[in-house]
Amino acid sequence: MDPNRYFSPDPGQREIAAQLHARVAGLPLICPHGHVDPRLFADPDYSFGSPVDLLIAPDHYILRMLYSQGIALESLGILRRDGAPVESDHRKIWQTFADHFYLFRGAPTGVWIADELHHLFGVEEKLTSASAQRVYDCIAEKLASSEFRPRALYERFNIEVLCTTDAATDSLEHHRAIQDSGWKGRIIPCFRPDAVINPDTPGWRKNIEALGAASGVEVTSLRKFVQALENRRAFFKHMGATATDHATPTAYTFELSQAEAETIFQRALRGEAAAGDSARFTGHMLMEMARMSIEDGLVMQLHAGSLRNHNPLIFERFGSDMGADIPLASEFTRNLRPLLNKYGNDSRLTLILFTLDETTYSRELAPLAGHYPAVKLGPPWWFHDSPNGMARFFEQVLETAGLYNTVGFNDDTRAFCSIPARHDLWRRAAANWIAGLVVRGIVDRGNAEAMIHDLAYRLAKKAYKLV
Length: 467
What we know:
Distance between the termini: 34 Å
Number of strands: 11
Largest sheet: 4 strands, parallel
CATH superfamily of the largest domain: Metal-dependent hydrolases
């Protein structure tokens, strides 16, 4: 692979970017937010399975691109909810993927996979229809070895800490097993209460019952509900968590009176929620989550702006996380004002904002982060986790928000083996942006070296309290 990939074609900027990248290329990886399954590390002998199990089946980026070109998910071995037959021959699935790998040319997924194949598995030829089975054999041979167990790769990747994302009702049994095993890898949970604070969630009533069982609090009232959430947050913190995560369609927040919140909660418990109840209750509970974060110190993340499961056919046939989530236009200035009016001036709160709507970068998010002590901006997320997305983020956000009102990088991935490639892309994009500042005389080399270290390592560690 080109050692100067992602750098400017301008020779002066490219040279400085390469030098800056070299300073941080070997730094440990801080992974403060992601969706890697903790089961990978609970069992020291866990195997990823086949190349399909590792690289295709769990990757919604791959699934959405192939589906957009008319390739049936059944042909990729994705299990159907109704139990109908799907392709089970992993070599055939891999061949289908390789036949269409050209679809990912220039796309971030193609970049990550090429990096994984080359640097992780030692593949020295392009993935094509002709090379598909040779590449499959190469990967399969590596995956069968002890060096490719998750714990071994965690150490090879030089990961310092990796945070998972776990439901509020999760027992964290796998985290407990990791801790009890004596292994030194640092895998910690993150508290995600979406399924219980949003009454529109399918199975919400059962989720509330599970919350009660997990917390030991019978949830019959709003007061008991809040008590159960506080109980679970305390347990997650005891297990090493430093953050919470909240995924919502909008950034709407609003503080209801206790009487009104109780009324909505009771309607939801009876299955009689009125139109608008869910949005208002979720907005109210985000206020409660901010209050709890001030009290227990957990960093609060808000991922807003995705319409989940946009394609009902795919959701009904295969379930969620199949590549059918679509960005929404978002608004933060008014929607967050109730929360920020009450808590935004309190530096004990760290509220990290993420968006899929780039039009809000310079208009709303950067000014908010550049003013409120509680607000920080997360890195480009999901559809914008790419060379161009990162460049747009640097150009639109940092001159208004300032570098130190951002939080560095997180990979936000389920695909464990792509983590080094994703961090390398960020470090290269950051080095290239900083090098542009140097060649234009905006910062000197000393400041540039401090900035790349911050973007690659220190900002994430500090923001997420990963001391």
